[in-house]
Amino acid sequence: MKLNNFPKWNPQRATINKINSIDFEIRYKALRYSSSGFIHRADVRNIIFKRDRYKCVSCGNKNILQIDHIISIWKVAKKEFPVELLNSKENLQTLCKECNERKTP
Length: 105
Hints:
By secondary structure, this protein is mainly α. It has one domain (13-102). It has 5 helices and 2 strands. It has helices at residues 13-19, 24-39, 42-51, 73-77, 97-102; strands at residues 65-69, 92-96. It has a two-stranded antiparallel sheet with strand order 1-2. The longest helix is centred in the first third of the chain and has 16 residues, at 24-39. It starts with 12 loop residues before the first helix and ends with a helix.
């Protein structure tokens, strides 16, 4: 699969309703749950890892790689950034576990 064929994040209607909630907690949990399912998909992981050459974009480590949001779910839930940006290939990066854990929210 090529990068230009990146899958579209397509939450279910009930999730979209929660994402549009006025309640921050409901919105955040819905975004977190739905996003987690999306970035754990094999096709999504393969595309991002391949684009980032199977190494952490921060330190170059090739062990225990994870998919990370550049603009956090928290900031999207706070409506600082559009929800459509959250799971775009431009907002996802490969980080090793150590760099991801050091990242500040």
